[in-house]
Amino acid sequence: MTKTLAVICQKGGVGKSTTAQNLAAGLTLKGYKVLTVDMDPQGNTTFTLGAKRDGPTALGILLREAKAEDAIQHTRYGDVIAGNRALAGADAYLTEAGKEYRLKEALEPVSCNYDYIVIDTPPALGVLTTNALTACTSVIIPAQADIYSLQGIADLADTISPVRKYCNPGLQIEGILFTRYSSRSAFSKELAGLAGELAANLNTKVFSTTIREAVAVKKAQAVQQTLFDYDPKAKVTEDYKALVEELTGEER
Questions:
Q1: Model confidence at 157, in pLDDT bands (50, 70, 90)?
Q2: DSSP letter string, 15-59
Q3: What are 167-217's pLDDT values in tens digits?
Q4: Which of 9, 73, 95, 131 has a 20 to 30 Å separation from 199 between CA atoms?
Q5: On the CB side of 102, how many CA atoms lie within 13 Å of its CA?
Q6: What's the total number of domains in the chain?
Q7: How far is the C-alpha of 163 from the C-alpha of 36, rounded, in Å?
Q8: Is 160 helix (H, G, I), strand (E, B) or coil?
Q9: Which helix (H) or strand (E) holds 159?
Q10: What is the pLDDT of residues 39-59, one digit of tens each?
Q11: CA torsion, points 162, 163, 169, 171, in degrees to nearest 10?
C-alpha cells in the first residue's frame, strides 16, 4: 500500500522543503519507488530535485488541465510533479465545492506505482495545504526548538482536526521532527520536552531523530543536489539517513 506523507508547517524557515527533498532522496536510495509532489509556490523542491517548472505542473493537475501521469517528471531522485509560482493563485482558482479533494483525485490513478508519495507544502494553511492533508495518509511536522514553532504546531492541529473529520478520517500525524537542532543547547532540550507534551496531546510522537544545523544544506541546494549526493558523509546527511530508517523501521 502506498504511504503518502505530507511535510507541513505553517512557519517558514524550519527546513520543510529540505526535509521533503532529502526524505524523497533517502527513500529512493533505499530502493523505494517515490513520487514527490511540490505544492509550494516557491518551487524549491522542484529546483533541488532537478525538475522543470514549465509544462504540466501541480497547479495543472489541481485545475484538471492535466493528468498526474502527464505531469510526472523522472529524476535521479525519483519521480516529481513540479511546483511553480502559479500555485500562489490556487486559493483564487479553486473555489468550487469539493476543492479539497483535487489532489487526492489526481493522484489516485498513479499512486499504485509508488511505495511513497512525499508532498511538500507551502508555509500557509490555505487550499494547497488542505489538499495535501486530504490526499495524505500521514503528516510530518518539521519544527525548530523555539516557541513560535510550537505555537505553529498547535495552529496546524486546529486545521488537521476538521480535515480529519470531514475529508480524511484516517489522517495520522507521523511525528514532530526537530530541524536546525542544537543538542548542546539547554534551551533546545527544554523546548523539546514541551514538544513531547504537545505531541502526546496530538496522539503522536517527537521523532528520536533530530536534524542539525549545517552549512552543507545551503551549499547542496545551491548546486541543485540533495545532501546524499553533495556530501554523503556529512553529519546532517547521516541525520536524514536516520530519519528514513526511523520512518521505515529499517536498521542502518
A1: confident
A2: SHHHHHHHHHHHHHHTT--EEEEE--TT-HHHHHTT--SSSS-HH
A3: 999 999 999 999 987 776 655 666 767 777 778 878 889 999 999 999 999
A4: 131
A5: 25
A6: 1
A7: 22
A8: helix
A9: helix 147-166
A10: 999 999 999 999 999 899 999
A11: -120
d(CA 75, CA 215): 25
Instruction: Determine the structural domain holding residue 171 and report its residue range.
Output: 3-248
Burial (CB count <10 Å: 0-12, 13-18, 19+), residue 147: exposed
pTM over 0.85: yes
Q: Letter for the amino acid at 141?
A: I
Cβ-proximal residues to 36 (8 Å cutoff; 6+ apart), any chain:
20, 21, 24, 45, 49, 77, 78, 79, 80, 81, 117, 118, 119, 120
Alpha-helix residue ranges (DSSP H) falling in 44-125: 44-48, 58-62, 68-71, 90-93, 102-111
